[in-house]
Amino acid sequence: MKKYYLCGPTVYNTPHIGNLRPILTFDLMIRALRYLKEDVYFLHNITDIDDKIINKAIEEHKTEEEIAKKYEKYYLEQLNNFNIEKPTKIVRVTEHLQDLYNYIQKIIDKKHAYKINGNVYFDIMSLKDEYGKISHQKLDNLIYDELEDNSSLKKHPADFALWKETKIGVKYDSPFGLGRPGWHTECSCFIDKYFNGETLDAHGGGIDLIFPHHENENIQHFAIHNKEIAKQWLHFGTLNYKNQKMSKSIGNIIYPHDYLAKYSADSYRLLLFSSNYAKPINATDEIFNANETLINKFIGIWNKSQLENEHLEINYNKVNEIAVYTSKLDFAKAFKEFIVLSKDKNQKGTFFETLRMLGFAFINKKITTDNKKLYQQWKEKVNEKNYEEADKLRTKLIERKLI
């Protein structure tokens, strides 16, 4: 069984389409692996308690649970809207507090963590030769992201919180005191629990998570199991819009519901499939429109094939070849073969099977018997040279987006 993990969202606001890039890319990869008969266990987390959630709850005069549930619901709806297969298991922080207590205690017992008041910190210097291997940085050059009240008492500035004593918002009564778990500990705890400490085949997340998040995940796993947490790290590039990273302050954010009001989910899948997963995508309206046009072209080929009741052969070796490239996230080779197929009239069956393997939604839409009859009636009127009636039927076919 292949073991895959993808860092999920902290549910305190509405995600933009760039936030969907990691999980949709995972979807392409895992669909391809499963098509190749690989057994894949895909674990995905949702951070449903965090300082950002606490601050949002205070701002909106709501509970942290209300905030988290609201934005989690939206996120999960987008998985459905963008035809993303649900992970094997989705895990939430608030449902695994006891597991987190046990996990933190393991690190303390291994002498790699220490307490200060109601906080528990990881002791970086206890594994100084291992820390920095994910981000390929030296300890002395690292910039640390946490400045707690106890920072002056920590053994080293890079020591990060496994458990945080909090003064505002919801507090959990742990063996270490009232507070909440540290963000970096959640993912490594889930991986430890659901994969029994085994090394992942692949661990994914946004490129901004390399340091400190993934670095800190890895060192916690190493502290307990004396081995790295993953064989392969997959870090996904940003989705920029008009040459700028999507940002509320700039005002260039595109939310999923706004995207779907103008374009199809399949066109976004095509955008990611045609891009290097690790590099930024500099999207523009022209690029979005071009992808939508190409998807509509594919839909036209698919519809006509159904309307003509074409008998199509499938070259499964070619589909498997594209699946292998996709499973390795070698989208350049996969997309090249994909486009060649799309232009070959003798390979329609193979092209359609490839679309199905890659998770394009339109390929599962079957034309009804009534619409097929309407199409045949139109052809008959054309053959009879009854162009007036043929034009009426053709208008109906166009309205139904069949031709």
Automatic annotation (TrEMBL):
Its EC number is 6.1.1.16. Its cofactor is Zn(2+). It is found in: Cytoplasm. SUPFAM superfamilies: Nucleotidylyl transferase. Binds 1 zinc ion per subunit. This is Cysteine--tRNA ligase. Zn(2+) binds at C7, C187, H213, E217. A motif ('HIGH' region) lies at residues 9-19. The keyword Ligase applies. Belongs to the class-I aminoacyl-tRNA synthetase family. Residues 3-289 form the tRNA synthetases class I catalytic domain. ATP binds at K248.
